[in-house]
Amino acid sequence: MDPVQQVVWLVETQMGSSPSVQRLSRETGLSRFIITRLFAEATGLTVAAYLRGRRLTQAAKLLTGSDMTVLRIADAIGYGSHEAFTRAFRREFGMTPEALRQRRDISSLKLTEPIRMTAPQRVPLATPEIAQLPPTRFVGLTRTYEMDGLGGLPNQWQDFIPHIAHLDPKRVGGAYGIVRNASPNGEKIAYSCAIREGLGLEAGGDLDTIAVPAMRLAKFTHKGHISAVRASTMSIFAHELPKLGLSPQGPIDLIEFYGPAFDPHSGFGEIGLWVNIGS
What we know:
Blueprint: H1 3-13, H2 21-28, H3 32-43, H4 47-65, H5 70-76, H6 82-93, H7 97-103, E1 129-133, E2 136-146, H8 153-164, H9 169-172, E3 175-181, E4 188-196, E5 207-212, E6 215-225, H10 229-243, E7 252-258, E8 268-276
Antiparallel strand pairs: 1-6, 2-4, 2-5, 3-4, 3-7, 6-8, 7-8
């Protein structure tokens, strides 16, 4: 089963037991970061937001369509106390459960309904090159994003480009997008626009040094426009790696390589998508 479809199925079938991202990670066999990234790419929501929204939507429907007590509803959707349930409900809908019970109308609420997954898009990708990356240091601009807020990446690249505009592109060889998990639950990433250290770009100000340990990489290549790179990334983690019997490893989750075969002006060309697969 596609991992995003599997997560949706697990959430819907285990609603009352309050499934966590950690539990979903165990049951799918994927890291919390990979689950969160794939889910956010496919749905526009983080796993945590979907879990919370589905549980509280179920509660709202029970409050308006049943005579169950508020405490019993809280217990049914996995909240351990009335207080925790009320805080979460107020954050989600802007009112207390008791206020909704009295009103008996959910038409104005922003509910989270079950995601109906269509067949995932399969992007044809060539068999990756398996290569060893030695310990490598980069210099670049790093920012942290929520998994459902990756729309800021193009602006980050626009802010980084002036730092390297004076450098000889032939000597630099290409730029890298380095993706690292930035939170214990996988809900945030640290993304670095960078080049290799020693090519004329120095750390300081808003630039920092990124130390990447030695890694065994599966080097995939996205061909076409950069706007479709998400689909290629999804296909790598959801289909290509499992097909090859490979599993992504941390601490670096993905390295994007923008080399001479990529035209940053048109957005067309080849982009390396390198995944750490461990030793």
